[in-house]
Design goal:
Elements: H1 7-17, H2 21-31, H3 40-44, H4 48-64, H5 73-83, H6 98-108, E1 114-117, H7 121-132, E2 144-147, H8 161-164
Parallel strand pairs: 1-2
Helix pairs in contact: 1-4, 2-4, 4-6, 5-6
């Protein structure tokens, strides 16, 4: 399993974040199997800035998943809405990838701030844990606030990301 907090992985992620659209198109075409990529119609309908973010997200997730997956179209659409500054609501079935849709804008732009409101206690705890993983090694998504009925401190996170962010 790839350790996202490994310095060499962080160097690769940062390099992808700084890559131009033209270079991203070449890299995506060379590295990611076509059957994993979202539909060409979806990608071609995007503006150049949106296409750049989609290719960056696909490459970063491909690297972090050990070359097994890229975000699906629904996840990318939700991430693009947030990146464009829209407030949004994503309603989708269990296991459809809503948490990755929340994470993509932060993977691309770690300085972003998001507020996540989840209606189910179990889901709230899962999301908080997924965003706090790595906080003790210096890595996390410090600008994601998951609202739940419990505080992070009550769940045992004494040095949580939200308290530092």
């Amino acid at each position: 399993m790839i350790d996202p907090w490994d310095p060499s992985v962080q160097i690769v992620i940062q390099a992808i974040r700084e890559t131009s659209l033209e270079e991203l198109q070449v890299a995506v075409g060379a590295l990611i199997p076509l059957n994993l990529m979202p539909a060409a119609e979806f990608i071609n309908a995007l503006s150049p800035n949106e296409r750049t973010d989609v290719f960056k997200a696909c490459l970063i997730i491909y690297v972090l998943s050990d070359c097994t997956m890229v975000p699906r179209q629904l996840q990318l659409q939700a991430a693009l809405a947030e990146l464009a500054g829209f407030d949004s609501t994503l309603i989708s079935g269990t296991g459809s990838g809503k948490t990755l849709a929340i994470a993509i804008p932060h993977i691309l732009h770690p300085d972003r701030v998001s507020f996540v409101i989840s209606p189910l206690k179990r889901l709230q705890i899962t999301q908080v844990r997924s965003f706090v993983i790595g906080s003790h090694s210096g890595g996390c998504m410090p600008n994601v606030l998951c609202f739940s009925g419990q505080s992070l401190r009550a769940m045992g996170y004494q040095d949580s990301c939200s308290e530092r962010g």
